[in-house]
Amino acid sequence: MRCAIAGGGIGGLATALSLHAAGLRDVVVWEATSEIRELGVGINLLPHAVRELTELGLDEALAARGIATAQLSYHTKRGERIWQEPRGRAAGYRWPQYSIHRGALLRVLYEAVCERLGPGRVLTGHRLAAFRDGSAGVDCRVERGAEAALETTCDVLIGADGVHSTVRAALVPGEGPPRWNGVTMWRGVSEAAPFFDGQSMILAGSFARRIVVYPISPTHRARGAALINWVAELRQGEARAMPPQEWEHRGRLEEVLEHFGGFRFEWLDFPAVARAAPAIFQYPMVDRDPLPRWRRGRTTLLGDAAHPMYPVGSNGASQAILDARVLAMHLATRGDVEAALDAYVADRRPATARIVELNRQVGPEQCMEIVEARAPHGFERIEDVISQTELEAIAERYKRAAGFDRDALHARPSYSVAGVT
Ligand SMILES: Cc1cc2nc3c(=O)[nH]c(=O)nc-3n(C[C@H](O)[C@H](O)[C@H](O)COP(=O)(O)OP(=O)(O)OC[C@H]3O[C@@H](n4cnc5c(N)ncnc54)[C@H](O)[C@@H]3O)c2cc1C
User: What kind and span of H or E run contains 169?
Assistant: First the structure.
């Protein structure tokens, strides 16, 4: 079975590795950019995705490059603690949660693909431009800059080409651009003083104005320092012009300080962290409506191409990795490509649609909205504002919906295909 993957991002590379591990060895990845570059800032991998990467044999590489997140806490805009919970192994999961630079994760996946699949499997500077169902499979046209376009046929085409997917645009004509919710995000990575235990992720504020901060480098941690990923999010309203949807679009420090200068707590001086960033990026918070179907003939969608979601609850990259493993399992174990794609879509489409919807309602971070509404000027004891039972219920509901409820994850059979060497 010749499998072609459009897009060499997290989802595309995880798919190439998963197909290979499931015994499908004729795999090619077309990546539009001229090289695999370590772009982006921090990303979180939840235990359900780390399980998949562990079963792909990447546990040591991840441990060397990511911080095993041990704690997550939500705070008010004044820094008061609303909720704190253990994460990953500290929460009893068999697999850790990792906070990692997107570029480092991409590097781990890319090196594994090159080593296992051999040379010539990831073709950079190859942009899938068009495709159609032919008599022998999916006929694809791949543009290669100045070189003549490649015309080729594959048995299955996987659109892992991100939020502006060409494959999705062909499957859903007239859908238009992603939807913006009026929130602008400034992102950066800074060398700064560690906070808490050096393995904690924190959110502070409420959806209208909040920060997300976590360390991402074990080498910094080993020498008592911290490389800190941060995102500052501000809802300015859809009436304003949307920032460009380009991952490398630069934002300005002055804007961050103007809106987040007050986020100085005893345990974290956020303005100082922002000042230490060598570069600040700006991006709008966008998603798309869940689709009723992800398959046309022998073509399907995966990752952000299938289900772009708000970066709430740390799920974007994790869900792309789960897609990859489930798709590979079905393609390797069912004789018929279309039946395999249907089984994949049946497993993954409803699960991810639920997360897209939950993230629109701010997912597990709902507790921050409730506290801001009930006690906008602060409180003495959090119990007077929201009960422990209510807080626990919010956290557990999201974990179940996003597929990382601990007991369910431990009980679920592996997606690995038995007997493959
Ligand atoms: C440069 C970049 C930086 C990012 N930075 C962050 C970040 O800092 N934090 C965060 O949370 N998320 C970031 N993301 C998004 C994040 O990677 C995804 O939300 C998530 O990991 C799901 O991955 P994906 O593989 O589905 O999509 P992506 O990671 O977006 O990968 C899609 C890939 O497809 C390629 N592509 C697009 N069109 C075509 C085509 N027609 N033919 C061939 N290839 C094509 C793109 O160049 C890209 O490499 C970034 C994405 C990119 C591309």
Answer: helix 166-171
